[in-house]
């Protein structure tokens, strides 16, 4: 995941390895568009969860529990 500053310079935010989750958490919490971009460096399969789906998962099963 990366972002570009106002001068067009790319800044790497993080690398995600196989089996990890990723999100722009600030965007998730605030319901605002993400400023982060995602680029796959090899063939990749992703699962997409809406915020509504994640909220339901939090409510339905302890393994999705979040810290408050």
UniProtKB/TrEMBL annotation:
Lipid metabolism as a keyword of this entry, yes or no, is no
Known InterPro entries for this protein? cNMP-bd_dom (IPR000595), cNMP-bd_dom_sf (IPR018490), RmlC-like_jellyroll (IPR014710)
Q: Does the keyword Manganese apply?
A: no
Q: Which UniProt keywords apply?
A: Activator
Q: Which SUPFAM superfamilies match?
A: cAMP-binding domain-like
Residue ranges of domain Cyclic nucleotide-binding in the record: 2-61
Q: What is this protein called?
A: Crp/Fnr family transcriptional regulator
Question: What is the organism of origin for this protein?
Answer: Cohnella cholangitidis
